[in-house]
Amino acid sequence: MLMDSLYGIGENCEKAGELSAEVVSLVMGEPQGKALTLTDFNLGQEATVSASPQGRVPTKAKHKKGKHLAGFGLDTCLGCPYLDECTVKPWKKGYYVH
Fold it and tell me: What is the pTM assigned to this prediction?
């Protein structure tokens, strides 16, 4: 279900899950010091990250209980001109977005 940002809170998401539905809502506010956010990534089915904003494919992807994680190798992110502005977080063998 696509919803406005005020409806994308925990209780609504839990109730939707009980009905085998998923709530997708906008995020309120401005990005916190980051120019690139999750919306800049290419998303595949079920909101999984299929590529970075630069078109790089993740080296690892995990999906568990409605949560998705995509990992990118060090060479991928360290060579990116947007690394300092990106929402990825350091990981022992690269960077990840959750």
Answer: 0.61
